[in-house]
Structure formats: C-alpha cells, structure tokens
Write a structure and sequence with these properties.
Elements (H helix, E strand, L loop, with lengths): L7 H25 L2 E2 L2 E2 L5 H15 L6 H11 L4 E8 L3 E8 L2 E4 L13 E4 H4 L1 E2 L4 H11 L3 E4 L12 E4 L5 E4 L3 H9 L3 H9 L5 H11 L6 H4 L4 H10 L6 H12 L6
Antiparallel strand pairs: 1-2, 3-4, 3-7, 4-5, 5-6, 8-9, 9-10
Helix pairs in contact: 1-2, 1-3, 7-10
Length: 265
C-alpha cells in the first residue's frame, strides 16, 4: 500500500506540477474573466480555477510521467478519489478546493490575496477546511468575507425554504443565497428546518431593497417560486408537510426559477 503521507519533498514536486497546470488554466481563464467585482483576475475566481485545473487533471493523469502528478495518480489507482469540494476555510473564507484521500489541495490559493502562492497542499486534518454545516455558519462567514449585510429572503418567500438568505453588498445591490448544491442540501436534508431556523433569526430586508425586487419581479410571467407572496417560514412548514425535501422536480424548479433572476438587483 502506498504511503499516503507525502514527504515535504514530494509535496514540493506535486506543487510544481500543479503550478504548471495552473498556468495553463490562467492562460485560458484570465482573458475571458479578467475582473471579479472590479478586482483583477485571479481574485474571486477560485471556483473557475479549481474547475479548470480539475478538468486538466482528468486529461493528463492517466498518462502522466511527471513525478508530482504520478504521486497523485498512484493514490487514485490505489483507491483514493479526487473530488471537488466547497466549504469553509478556517471560518474565514468560502473556498473551492480539491480533496484526494487525506489531502487538501488548493490550486487557487491566491484568489483572496494575489501575493500568496498559487498552490497549497495540506493534510486535510490540519487544513481547517470543513463543509458548511448550517446557514448560521454561512452567514457568519459571508458577513465578514463578502462584507455584506444578510437578511431573511422575504422578497421571494416561496423560494426561501431552498434559499433563505438575501445578501446586500456595500453598493446596495442584493442577491439570494446560497444557490449551490451544498447549501441547498443543508436546506433539503434538514427537511427545511435549517431554513426555518435562520429565517426566524434574521431581520426583514430594508424597504428600499424590497421595492427594487418588486420592480424587477413585476417583469416576470407567473412563476409560483418568484411571485407567490406570504411568510417565508410558512412556506418551510408547507414544503415539509408535502415532502418537498424528497421531490427533485420541485428542487429543480426552484433552481430554474432562481437562475432566471438577475445576478444582482
């Protein structure tokens, strides 16, 4: 059985080979997504970079002769799976990374601070990288990392069981959160109890924000998830009663409704 505990020298080899793949990713991505919230690439682009390097790894690993990548390949051959992961890094940031066996592999380590090394490899146990366990943890990180205020989603209350949060940035623009698989699963796997809990704890959105949403939503044809009115917590209770947590069609319809909205309002 291959020793899963890489030496510092082996980690350096892996970092060097991943840095080459990261360079290829940058050459592709930087021209197409040069800015994120007025900040230059790679700031804020951890998901896109992670996904591009992951795709490159799928192509090169089967036939690689590079020493660092061969170490990763050997782990995979012996049963470890290379997986995409999203979660909390030290409860300071949201981060997209790769997990391979006992290893945390960050190929976008410079997307918060561009002066940091592009690649970081740590034992998963020492990385302080964890999944997001509830909406309260998400809100805590979002407020500090994104510098946003967070309110209950009472602009689209029928969507609130799936996406209970309304984030408002420093410029006043707002968006629903969080519409990724991880946070949707927090809502669904709790039978919407986690959504209900955070909705009960957050204030209502400011009137000016609600008015902007009302104007935007008036341009939509009828969609129950976007245009239904009422109390967000009541929808959580109703969805739980009707077993929406096991209804993939309803989940997909909620996501489709969300995707039809502007990215921010």
């Amino acid at each position: 059985m291959l020793n899963e505990h890489f030496t510092p020298e082996q980690c350096a080899l892996i970092c060097a080979d991943l840095a080459h793949l990261r360079l290829l990713a940058d050459l592709k991505l930087a021209p197409s997504i040069p800015y994120f919230a007025e900040k230059p690439y790679p700031i804020g682009r951890c998901r896109e970079i992670r996904d591009e390097v992951f795709a490159l790894l799928q192509t090169v690993l089967p036939t690689t002769k590079k020493p660092g990548l061969s170490l990763l390949k050997n782990l995979i051959v012996q049963g470890s799976s290379l997986q995409k992961a999203w979660g909390s890094l030290r409860d300071e940031y949201f981060q997209n990374a790769l997990i391979l066996g006992p290893w945390y592999i960050d190929v976008a380590n410079d997307t918060v601070n561009a002066n940091k090394p592009r690649i970081e490899i740590l034992s998963l146990a020492k990385s302080n990288f964890t999944s997001i366990k509830d909406f309260a943890q998400f809100v805590k990180i979002a407020r500090r990392y994104w510098k946003v205020d967070v309110y209950r989603n009472d602009v689209c209350p029928a969507l609130a069981p799936y996406m209970p949060l309304l984030c408002v940035g420093t410029s006043g623009t707002s968006w629903l959160g969080a519409a990724n698989d991880d946070m949707l699963n927090v809502a669904i796997n709790s039978n919407f109890e986690e959504s209900k809990r955070i909705l009960d704890s957050l204030p209502c959105a400011p009137v000016k924000v609600k008015e902007r949403w009302k104007k935007v939503l008036s341009n939509f044809d009828h969609n129950d998830f976007l245009l239904s009115v009422g109390e967000p917590v009541s929808y959580c209770t109703m969805y739980s009663k009707h077993s929406y947590q096991t209804d993939l069609t309803k989940r997909d319809a909620a996501v489709t409704a969300y995707l039809s909205l502007p990215k921010s309002v």
